[in-house]
Amino acid sequence: MEDRGIVELYLQRDSRAIEKTQEKYGGRLRELSFNITFDAGAAEECENDTYLAAWNSIPPHEPVSYLYAFLARITRHLSLNVCRDRRRLKRGGYVVRLSRELEECIPSPDNAQCRLDEEELKAAINGFLATLSEEKRNIFLRRYWYLDSVTSIAERYGIGESKVKMTLQRARGKLREYLIKEGYEL
Amino acid sequence: MRGEEFLYKLELTDPKFVMAADAVPNITRHGGGWRRALTIVAAAALLTVVCLTAAMALSVKVRQFVFDFFTGEKQTIPESPVDSEIDKDSMFVEPKIIIGELEERTFHLPVSSHAGEGTFLVCTDPVEGQRGSHYDAYREEHGELVKLPEYELRKTATLGGVEYDLTCDWAPNGEDCAMTWDGGLDLGDELAFPVFGGRAERRLVALYRRSSPESGRKYPKEYPVIINMYTGEITDVLAGTGAEDLTDICSYVLSEDERYMLMEAQDGEEFGYYVADIEKKELHSLNELSGERVDGCSLLDESIACWSEENRFRRGWSLSLDDYERTETFGPTKCFNPDEPEKGGMTWIPGIGGIVQAGITYHGCRFALDIAPDRSVTAIDLSNGERLPIEGFRWREYPDDGSYGIGLYASPDGKKLLLAGHYDGRSNDYLAIIDFEKRAMVEIERENSNDYNEYVGWFDNDTVVIEQLHMVGDGIYCDSRDFFLYSLADKEE
Q1: What is the average pLDDT score of chain A?
Q2: Is pLDDT at B60 greater than 50 in this prediction?
Q3: Which domain range does residue A111 map to?
Q4: Nearest CA distance, A10 vs chain B (angstrom)
Q5: Is A85's Cβ below 8 Å from some Cβ in B?
Q6: A124 and A163 share a domain?
Q7: What is the rounded average pLDDT for all residues in chain B?
Q8: Are residues A68 and A108 in the same domain?
Q9: Coil, helix or strand for B89?
Q10: Minimal C-alpha gap between B82 and chain A (Å)
């Protein structure tokens, strides 16, 4: 079923919406969650919670043209929560490592709450991503949005691992420069 | 804000970026469609012959054009499409140009298996896929896998005052070789297992400097050298060129005569492309030779193809390897947007950084494809700008909703190009191989399934490999792999 049709079912409060969503995106959402939590049970839990969250948020949202991104964002958030809450031995460390990588981008990392409101932060993130070429943007997002390993990114795009690492290193440097230049204070 | 919080907040990313990052080609498909593919190829071949015969009988110009294309003579490309007397739609039926049949072989192997450079590697110990694992190497003979003998390399080599531990097992496959155990070999990160490729006696490989040398001489973190796998002898081909002073070298390719090495490397904080003239012991920045920023490059027989990209427009030029003289090859050309195929444009060009499998060095592609709004395709020779229309070939039609993608993969020698297409999250249902040297191409269709994940690449310069992962546990785990090899069976003209 087309995304438009699925969203229409949500809007009509038709419970087949969840069935159709699971049919079309269930496997990918679970895989995304598994990539983050490294736990099949937790991944299944996050997938199911995603359907519930989608049911509760459509409407008011109508993600007709970006249903997968909408669902994946929820799954990602829930999966990160799992890592944070349960401090999973294996994947928790992975999230910590990614967090440390991203800390390089932040001009003055500290314990303070973000000084930007959500809209400003959104503008900062998307403004920066728009400056990257499509290839670099995709690599950056595969690493820090989808939390893919360097190896799987290299396989996905058919490039060497060192190329991925180099691209990420450059992108992090550029992000830091961008945030400083644009005067964002995180 | 801390890094972890920022990681969370990346969820504010624009959904269109998120969707784009998810839609990139790589995965998919179900095999078993070889009979169908061969039927299509055979039918298309028959139709081709009929159509060509009819077209050539009807028009001298068409006859000349076809002969020119097959004989490889240079085409003078008309600014406006061919002559009006030719009804192209009725006379040329795709695929017009076919070299023989596309032969398919399938091998079912354990989960931790890999294929590349004419060799299969199958993991034999429980630490699957990790550095330190042992692999058995096989080559294909008449559709069967034959285990290759294994050799040991145990040596400590010194380079620039740094000791490198060359402890590994390897298997020769003809003149080539593959690593079956990386023991203590100080290889660069990009050569993490499995490692294919290279001639056994002259194997180009990057040594990995684990710590800063105390000798005072600073080598890049990863530094390409040639190793004789039989003796462990190291040849420092870049010695004296100045490449030793680069901070890092992440991609590299050596010319056939071992005179030039093209590299993507870091000099201080700056990344860029460099060419080392090994004979003259010189190192040149392509940015400086070109007088402008180079965004990508390929090492060709007698020149280096360069291009830059700005605001989705690309320009190209070549640098002669003799004197680095610059020749313009194509003016500002709009990049092809797969979501707007009706607008046409130039496809992405696989350059030297496009390493498809660990250990295989790619020259980058000699050709780019220019797609017209009517989906007709012209190949652009990046060495001289010559434009070669691929008559009868039309860029595949697919929905413009971003659900379909076609990936481009250059063969290791850069003389062939593979196009692999699939719907998002599904299998590769379309393959096309263009052999630029023979001015020939073949297209096949495959089944379109969402049962499997797939990776696409080149097995050797004549063979494409599709690695199909069999997923279990609701699609989370992979328990085995099928390898589909597609060869250009008729390699003769």
Answers
A1: 80
A2: no
A3: 104-181
A4: 19
A5: no
A6: yes
A7: 75
A8: no
A9: helix
A10: 35
Give the domain-ending residue among A49, A65, A92. A92
pLDDT tens per residue, range B287-328: 999 999 998 999 999 999 999 988 888 999 999 999 999 999
Q: What is the rounded CA–CA span in Å between residue B345 and residue B375?
A: 10
Q: List, as own/partner pairs, every contact residues B422-425 make where C-beta atoms lie below 8 angstroms and the sequence separation is at least 24, other chains included.
A: B422/B25, B422/B27, B422/B28, B422/B29, B422/B448, B422/B454, B423/B28, B423/B448, B424/B22, B424/B23, B425/A28, B425/B27, B425/B28, B425/B450
CB contact under 8 A, A69 and B18: yes
Cα–Cα distances (Å) from A63 to A12, B80, B122, B394, in that order, read 14, 44, 45, 34
Nearest partner of B237 among B190, B296, B283, B272, judged by Cα: B283
Same domain, residue pair A72 and A16:
yes
A165 touches chain B (CB under 8 A): yes
pLDDT top residue among A36 and B151 = B151
The encoded tokens of residue B193 equal 């297992």
For chains A and B, count residue pairs whose Cβ atoms are closer than 8 Å.
161
Helix, strand, coil percentages in chain A from 3-state DSSP, rounded to 5: 75, 0, 25
In a mutational test of the A interface, the residue from B1, B27, B349, B458 whose CB has the highest number of chain A CBs within 10 Å is: B1
Could you read off the pLDDT of B433-445 as tens digits, one per residue? 988 887 778 888 8
Assess whether A120 and A76 both reside in one domain: no
The yes-or-no verdict on residue B54 having pLDDT over 50 is no
ipTM of the assembly? 0.82
Task: List the B463-472 sheet strands across, edge first.
Answer: B102-110, B477-488, B463-472, B452-460
Closest CB from A31, A65, A146 relative to B475 = A31
- Cross-chain Cβ contact B11/A165 below 8 Å: no
- In a domain, residue A98? The reply is no
Confidence band for B131, pLDDT divided at 50, 70 and 90: low
The last residue of one of the domains, among A92, A123, A141, is A92
Whether residue A149 is contained in a domain is answered as yes
CB contact under 8 A, B3 and A112: no
Give the pTM.
Answer: 0.62
Nearest CA in chain B to A119: B12
Tell me the mean pLDDT in the region A71-98: 70
pLDDT at B369: 93
* Any domain includes A10: yes
Q: Residue B189's closest chain A neighbor by CA?
A: A162
Q: How many domains does chain A have?
A: 2
Segments in B321-471 forming alpha helices (H) = none
Q: Is there a contact between B18 and A126 if contact means CB atoms under 8 Å apart?
A: no
Q: Is A153 on the interface with B (CB under 8 A)?
A: no
What CATH number is given to the structural domain containing A18?
A: 1.10.1740.10
CA distance A87 to chain B (A): 13
**Residue A83 and residue A25 share a domain:** yes
| Domain chopping of chain B, boundaries | 1-93+301-450
Task: Scan residues 95-124 of A and list those with Cβ closer than 8 Å to B.
Answer: 95-96, 98-103, 105-106, 109-115, 118, 121-122
